[in-house]
Design goal:
CATH topology of the largest domain: D-amino Acid Aminotransferase, Chain A, domain 2
Number of domains: 2
Number of helices: 7
CATH architecture of the largest domain: Alpha-Beta Barrel
Radius of gyration: 20 Å
Strand content: 25-35%
Bound molecules: pyridoxal-5'-phosphate, 2-OXO-4-methylpentanoic acid
Length: 342
Amino acid sequence: MQKKDINWGELGFGYQVTEARYVSEYKDGSWDEGRITEDANIVLNECAGVLQYAQTVFEGLKAYTTEDGRIVCFRPDLNAARLVDSCRRLEIPPFPEDRFVEAVVETVKANAAYVPPYGSGATLYIRPYIFGTNPVIGVKPADEYQFRIFVTPVGPYFKGGVKPIVIRVSDVDRAAPHGTGDIKAGLNYAMSLHNIVDAHAKGFDENMYLDPATRTKVEETGGANFIFVSADGQTLITPKSGSILPSITRRSLMYVAEHYLGMKVEHREVLFSELDNFSECGLCGTAAVISPVGKINDHGREICFPSGMEDMGPVTRKLYETLTGIQMGHIEAPEGWIKEIL
Ligand code: PLP
Ligand code: COI
């Protein structure tokens, strides 16, 4: 198969249209059999549930080319399960988990020419999503939905790739206590848009959200979970809260730290006041992979991690190399983590 003529190494995290996407429609109480289509556009009624009351949830995962030329993706069953959780919270009929994985495989196969080659630094980002399509004017769930998947080749989420970033402590909240912070709903991202534009305008790469109830505990950023490394480098610490998204990357890194690197792992509440004790900090997620954080700005007071602003810290690097080695197929993966596509 002939790859597309794309300058893979120059890609940022952006959208480019590809040839094929998947669509399945929900009507009269069931999902249809689904199909691949070439049409990238969607025609909706002006009163569609998604347009009026933001009834939409989504997922994000990636496909990789391995060193020996296979195309694989990483733990799609966990995306399928999380999408079901997101659907339940917004009264959307869940898309069956086994069909989700099959649809991901089908969509990536149909776009194999867009899967970046091994070693290019780029990957294929896969975006499954569901939204209410029929007219809804009283506040209630839609009766009809579309489940879709598009793909787009991407480079690093943060400019500079794996260079440490600078983030600020946010004054606004991303999620309410007992709200929707733990699901992947478009509404969580809509409310973060003003804040990310403001952070960028002030020279910061991202916002650190604190727990909305007490503002004393670390939650996550707009698009990634946090990981921290203890001062002695022996323990991986990740924040636990009912209002952060259960990141698949973070759950995988906890396993990698314990079972591949022999570290201790703590998944617990993390007080903001503890950050001065940690040696390394990073953001983790499908898009972010692991992005090292060099500094956190708390209203002018800087928390500077000993790992500095030049490079990833040593533990973050080991986590990064092990995780991406598993994803790209040169480190053996735990059972069930890698889904073969081609
Ligand atoms: N937190 C938020 C708010 C996100 O949008 C994402 C991205 O998916 C993550 C965390 C990381 O989750 P995952 O590792 O499953 O991509
Ligand atoms: C992902 O990592 O898949 C996300 O959805 C995060 C988003 C900021 C791109």
